[in-house]
Amino acid sequence: MVETGATPNVSFVRRQVSRIGRVMTSPLLPDDYFALIRPRWSTREVTGTVVRVNKERGNASTVVIKPNFPLEPHLPGQYLRLGMEINGIRHWRAYTITSDPDHPEGFISITSKHTEGGRMSPVLNQFVRSGQQVFLGEIEGEFTLPDPLPGQLLMVSAGSGITPILAMLRELDRRDRLDDVVHVHSSRSADDMIFGDMLRELADRRPGYRLVEIHTADHARFTPADLDHHCPDWRDRATFLSGPRELIDAVEEHYDAAGLSDQLHTERFQPVIGNGGGDGSGGTVRFRVSECDAECEAGVSILVGGENAGAKLQFGCRMGICHTCVGRLQDGAVRDIRTGAITEASGQMIRVCIHAPEGHVEVDL
Amino acid sequence: MPKLEATPNNPLHTLTADQLEKLGQEFDALHDEIYAELGDADARYIRGMITFQRRLIAASRGVLLFSRFRPAWWAGTAGLSIAKILENMEIGHNVMHGQWDWMNDPNIHSSTWDWDTASPAAAWKHSHNFVHHTYTYVIGKDKDVGYEIFRVDPRQKWRPGYLLQPIGNVVLMLTFEWGVALHDLDFDAIKSGSKSKKQVAQELKAIGVKARRQIAKDYLAYPGVSAAATAAVTALNGGDPTQAARDSFKATLVADAVANVVRNIWSNAIIFCGHFPDQTFMFTEEEVANESRGGWYVRQLLGAANIDGSPLFHIMSGNLSFQVEHHLFPDMPSSRYKEIAPRVKEICERYGLPYNTGPFRKQWGTVQRTILRLAFPGGGPRPKPGPYVAPPEERAERERLVEALPAFP
After folding, report:
1. Which domains, from first to last, does chain A contain?
2. How large is the average pLDDT for residues B288-316?
3. N or C: which end of chain A has fewer CB within 10 A?
4. Minimal CA–CA distance to B329: which of B4, B94, B110?
5. CA atoms of B257 and B215, how far apart (whole Å)
6. pLDDT at residue A273, rounded to an integer
7. What is the mean pLDDT of chain A?
8. In-domain check, residue B5
């Protein structure tokens, strides 16, 4: 299948109309005909309209979006996938939701930093105007404030990695719990810091929030060893980390060495999985459409097994986010490689990049 | 099975391995060139086509509410027939081929599309996209060689059952959508046991569900709505609502049936003309063993035939009138076939290969002749066209374009 937006929550009445109307419109949905009158009337996926674009410091823009169906409430730090059509092709990227939860009109915003040679960020930063239609994925992400809140917090961020940290800091401020938070942030310069003004204002207003800015244009790059200097009691603090991959790798290593990896919270997409190892029995896969049989050892995804057996399969992220690789599970049972959860076939769609067979399975791919 | 003889003078064997490799590269390059250009304009084309088709079918269904009145019946039936043809051919067939997958639009995508016909999408994608387009016209491998029921090549062994072929042919024309649905089950695979019982059961169930929905829609729901609407109007005017409802139900039911049959006859004709005219070759398994990429392209060229026609004819045939281009590049948006046709011809000419095409009358006529002749034992290979030679006006046009477009204007 192909990456698609979230399924909207529609009212009971609307669902029944659709169900009954389908008798007249099969194999399409009544929605497909409603959409001829107003595209927004389709309930096939959640879409949104850009309301406003605000320029931020550091070559970034905040895009405010009005969803056409109410979104699930989100927690500060979570993200969603944003889809946009560029020259006839729909592209998707995941962005942290930077707006506060419970916006009175249900708006959300994302903040994107312009990346040279990128596909979506140049469009979001230069060409998007209010009225533009976008597609919205599900609210996702585990990188959120824990409950109950730890007493002392340390935030470490760099560049556009500020977005989930900002969302959490604003939440702490709203809940009046900004008691003892140290925030070490790297940006190229003071001017270049995304949300710099907002955070400096917050630091002025809240004595419990200490902002340490590192400007890499004229100072040395941040290394985890600098924590002893910026925040001597870092060992006692629950740490939230967000930034480029090198920063995350370095800080994780530092915390592992200190035996403190339990205290470190970070959002990082899993590296490529599905190449073997882990629990499960493995098994055999029958690809019904491409007439191919594959064997998968324990921990080998159906996708990898199929590719090894010569099947041409579609894929995108290969880590369970984008749903490009999905196929219908017709027979057998599969194990989610990430969680170990086992699912029995009931004709449902599965992401073959994160599922390994348990015994023999058959998929419509 | 007795060893099959290769067709004599099959152009597949006149090219050297080196030439085949070059040919493969040229076709690959043509494909990549078009794919690199795909963008907004192409997206607008398919969306426009889908929107037009949906408006047309909605309007036709609306007009058929008054199917009791002659002019409404004719207009509605004509509109519905055209809409169903467009939906199956220019839209459904091509979307399910993945021709529009590059747009990444989940609502116009081979993995999600289902069409307004009896055949469920998944089974069709297997038998057509995979089996037919991979093993194109390899006798014994491609189940579309006579669809497992007809003898369309003299090398297929004759059986008395083939005597019924001329009748079967007419029956298949009228009920083509059901024939396709059953064909997708792949009776050979069921007999040989290469398909599990469970899969067969699931596929039968899928056909059943699809059939129920199609029948409920065309033969119950819409006639019912027509009947209700007419009865209400008649009652308001003080007439006999029962009789009006009955007439109306029947008129709409017949209109839907006629539209389905028109679509069946048309799609059957276009599809048969794509592969069974005299010009086309079929292949033995030995001929295609260890085939190169270039060899695969040549087989597609030889196994398919185009139909000449107007732009409207091409759209109504789902651009399968460019069957040659479609077989070379099954995943290329159909709207681009017309544009690449001259370049395909030019490549054919340079490599001394035929480019099969002809007017609809001729293509359809030779198909019917073959089906009738091969119902009886015997039969020999039909005359095949020689290498493609551009007619003078095409050659003049080609030269004019070269002259007209200097590299540095």
Report:
1. 12-140 (2.40.30.10), 153-266 (3.40.50.80), 283-364 (3.10.20.30)
2. 93
3. N
4. B94
5. 10
6. 62
7. 91
8. no
What's the token pair of residue B246?
Answer: 């009955």
Inspect the interface and report whether the beta carbons of A89 and B39 lie closer than 8 Å.
Answer: yes
A36 interface with B at CB cutoff 8 Å:
yes
Which of A3, A26, A330 is closest, CB to CB, to B213?
A26
Total domain count, chain B:
1
The Cα of A91 is separated from the nearest Cα of chain B by a number of Å equal to 7
**Which residue intervals of A210-281 are DSSP H helices?**
227-230, 245-257
On whether residue B46 sits in a domain, the answer given is yes
DSSP 8-state class, residue A281: -
**Enclosing domain of residue B311:** 11-373
Predicted confidence (pLDDT) per residue in B19-30, tens digit: 999 999 999 999
Compare B190 and B166 and report the one with higher pLDDT: B166
Q: If we measure between CA atoms, which residue out of B347, B360, B308, B300 comes closest to residue B326?
A: B300
Positions of E strands within B190-234: none
Residues of B with Cβ-Cβ distance to A1 under 8 angstroms:
106, 109, 111-112
Q: Please check whether residue B173 lies inside any domain of the structure.
A: yes
Nearest CB among B39, B40, B199 relative to A362 is that of B199
Query: For chain B, what is the mean pLDDT?
Result: 91
Task: Say yes or no to pLDDT of B7 above 80.
Answer: no
pTM, 2 dp:
0.88
With beta carbons less than 8 A apart as the criterion, state whether A255 and A239 touch.
Answer: yes
Are B199 and A91 in contact (CB < 8 Å)?
no
